[in-house]
């Protein structure tokens, strides 16, 4: 086998990785050991930090099949390396010759699955991934997932349960009987313990991991160096700070582990009953469950310890842990294709597709319903970290690194500082050799310059701003589990909103109904609760077609169903366990109207009579329920009126879906127009249908019939119109975002027209804006995929859309109307199906559609995530705000995900708002901007602090002097720490502004800011250093020097006689030192004030100064020189602050931005001023000449520039875009105008 082979595991998935095989090499190990000893352990640290180097330094390449160690590299943009040791699992205990003591694993495409096979194939199947006759399987563990060697695909693959490659028929025929004890033991050996183990590391382990951080190692090096140079006080101060930092870090890390451990421990060990092959019931611990076990769901409910598919009975489940909605969901048994009238026998089971039949790990089963004598059973399909909850926990335990320009630039900036330190290092060595300094002193001083240039306090200073921002967010009810994302939120320029529960109220109100009689719509009716309609099929459908249930006597279920049922005022009664047992079959849920509504009841005025005194004369029993399916967009029930021979089928759902299943002659001709009128007004419309079933359909047959057999040939009954009101704060919040040039996008599961209507109502789409609906159709019957473009509103009052003059659509920018932005805005709207087709067949159109796509309707959860990715691909910083119901994936994928749900689902979201209102979005962005600007300020300040101190020391080194221990201590503790922590306290500015902060440190504005301040500071320090030597009183300082000629000098001299030897040794007390120390101390404060900017991102800072202590190693200088130094400091302050605040912010910013205004393009996603400055920065000084032709950095800006000169964009009304038939250029397309 090729020794240089490279394979890929998890291909096409989010955690795709390249895998390389290695074997341990003794001679390499010996060389590395020698290197570790020679480097004093530093090489060991380097190999600890770099897994790739560690493996390559100690191992040789080997075939993956026979290797001892695997090296893994992620294929994403981060290219992270991991290594894992190969382990061997021995199966000798469970010989292959015994068919009852094993289950088979085989490769099913991409995963290793469990499928039962004839006994004679057992040996052959096992051999696919076992190497020897002794049955040893090689595997490794990475991020809590085991990867086994699979001989069939010649690669490692993770073991899957029954969630892939198993048909629904197979689940009933091969898996419903349960496992033998031998099979169970064998599977447990492979799958391991069923637990989501979040091990809380010991304090010692965490301490070692924290202390071995490169930052703390550098601090340790610095402390040792300072100690050898007798800077004991400063070294001690840094040690104390480091200990405090380590302890606080350990506390927060351990606290997070404990919280996560407690969250997943709720189901860690419970006792469960499982069915074995011989129908015996065995009680085992939930940790012993394996895929294939048949679990008995207890009557009083349980917290699910695994993912399982329901094969018998019905369960009511609270899935708030997964979905964020505490609404109970009814789960029914998986349809059995072998007994269904119209079943698809080969349909594969999939937990996502069949989620209405799947009980997910961590969800709470509230109650069960069953046939007497038959238990409620579910087959275990996934265990441990493979479960839905396990995957959520894995994503928290092993998060993807956050890729943000600030952090990348920070490392680049540090490298620049290291390069500066290198220059100082060489200068110090040369200068010391020329001055014949001792070797020991040369080594200490040259290394000291490195510790001065790269400040050990930098990470702590950078974290301070984020910690303060996190506290401020907590005060306004926004909780954060990923503090690094606060900075990223400062860059958000596009926010996606879920509609229901986010932009609009959570609940729906019944606006009215519009019934159909004789294929004609009647006029809308507001009151459904009246005697005229009580026995109508329309009200019967409203009374029965829902998934409501009573939990502890209270009606609960889907909010829409609740509103609908409450509107008719009926009563729902469920059978008790005793009644079910008595009748020997599951008792139906019964609904009936209150007595007042029945014609023969007492007059409505007599309200005091008990409703339950007399037997009701009109009752409907719900015999069978087909739950709502988002894929089918409908739900249906089979019901029977008490005393009737025939049963009735009722169906409700999306109007288009329902109308398609009804007899055409029962659907009104103006159905589309009426529906469009309602949806355009923002109403949510639900259609109802009914049909009488044949009398031959008995109770038992109905229990096994497929829904396809019921849901056809229906009579269309009419529409229920629900009103989904906008939240009060929605329009104002969106207006604030638009003013701040932040794009808003709606992503909803609701219908297209309703979504467009809500977008118009809330101001997302302005009244004069045009909406272009992209309707994409997949390839069919040999025809290529195509997109039909429709304009949602005609621009003129023409009766025929084709009569619209394309020239009348002002979608291009004209040079004389640059500022008239409102005339140029257009928006794309599409549904989830169209979005998927466009992603697959029109890849070159995706970026163009992302640029102006505003409404995305009927979007499935995974499509929401794909949309976020598509927007990120054109360089948008994307925020996502949702109620957590089905937005988990999108919330995690966005740069800043804000969940409006306080439930456990919010664990998946970086931010959670306590108040379910989108007003948290501008607040988060404001705080993000403030934190980001604070990070820049602190970083710039720390860089200047390093350079100022570096230059001070370099100047003093030239006369073989240095700063004293207390001088260093004063600068670093009394000035720097106080300044850094007060600099970070500025709260966010009161409102969002249009300009955005820069995204990285390597930008024109920031580079100019830092370089100009460096030049100013160096200039004034040099001025003081050289000017002091020109003074008439100047002499080379010695303890007897008396420049002040005052009485205080005698005291000074006498107090320092004892330290004469020390002073001679370090030469700290001299006029140059005092001058440089005095000027540089003020320079730290000056740059702090210059960099501490307030408006427009932060509130102003008034208290960023510290007092200067005089008990330091400084010498007395004449009064005139003190005044001179003060003048130098004041001039320095004036120059620094003027350059930073006037020249940089006012002149350059305005010049560059104004020039951009007069350039070639400008559109609704306006380029922020700072982006312009970033572009300028890359051009260096000749910006005036070179920048005009430079294309924008962000892809969406570049696209906007291109599209303004594209005559074919946006597509004209009534045109079609077709994908070219199977050409090699992926996604290329042509526009064909339909005449």
Spans of at least 5 consecutive residues whose pLDDT stays below 50 are: 95-134, 580-584, 601-616, 794-823, 1046-1064, 1103-1111, 1153-1189, 1222-1228, 1231-1235
Beta-strand residue fraction: 15-25%
Strand tally is: 44
DSSP helix fraction: 25-40%
What is the count of DSSP helices, taking H or I runs of 4+ residues? Answer: 39
Largest sheet: spatial strand order: 22-42-41-40-23-35-39-38-36-37-43-44
Describe the structure.
With 1235 residues, the protein is an alpha+beta fold. Helices cover 39% and strands 18% of the residues. It is built from 39 helices and 44 strands. The strands form eight sheets. The chain has a twelve-stranded mixed β-sheet with strand order 22-42-41-40-23-35-39-38-36-37-43-44, sandwiched between helices. Strands 25-24-34-33-32-31-30-29-28 form a nine-stranded antiparallel β-sheet. A six-stranded antiparallel β-sheet has the order 13-12-14-21-16-19, with helices on one face. It is globular and about 120 Å long. It starts with 6 loop residues before the first strand and ends with a strand.
Note the main attributes of this structure.
44 strands; disordered C terminus; alpha+beta; globular; 39% helix; 1235 residues; twelve-stranded mixed beta sheet
Write the layout of secondary structure elements.
Layout lengths: L6 E3 L7 E8 L1 H13 L3 H8 L1 H8 E3 L7 E6 L6 E5 L1 E4 L14 E4 L2 E4 L7 H6 L8 E7 L2 E6 L4 E4 L9 H8 L5 H11 L11 H9 L2 H15 L3 H33 L6 E5 L5 E5 L8 E3 L5 E2 L3 E6 L1 E5 L1 H4 L4 E4 L26 E2 L4 E6 L7 E6 L5 H10 L7 H30 L4 H15 L4 H18 L2 E3 L3 H6 L4 E4 L1 H5 L5 E9 L2 E2 L15 H8 L4 E3 L2 E3 L2 H10 L2 E3 L3 H7 L5 E4 L27 E10 L4 E8 L6 E6 L1 H6 L10 H10 L2 E10 L6 H6 L2 H4 L4 E9 L6 H10 L3 E5 L4 H10 L8 E8 L8 E6 L34 E6 H10 L4 H7 E5 L3 H13 L4 E5 L5 H6 L2 E4 L11 E3 L6 H38 L7 H19 L20 H25 L19 H8 L4 H7 L4 H21 L27 H39 L11 H10 L4 H4 ...
Parallel strand pairs: 23-35, 23-40, 35-39, 36-38, 38-39, 40-41, 41-42
Antiparallel strand pairs: 1-2, 2-3, 2-4, 4-5, 6-9, 7-8, 9-10, 10-11, 12-13, 12-14, 14-21, 15-20, 16-19, 16-21, 17-18, 17-20, 22-42, 24-25, 24-34, 26-27, 28-29, 29-30, 30-31, 31-32, 32-33, 33-34, 36-37, 37-43, 43-44
Helix pairs in contact: 2-3, 7-9, 8-9, 8-13, 9-31, 12-13, 12-30, 14-30, 21-25, 27-28, 27-39, 30-32, 30-35, 31-35, 32-35, 32-36, 32-37, 35-36, 36-37
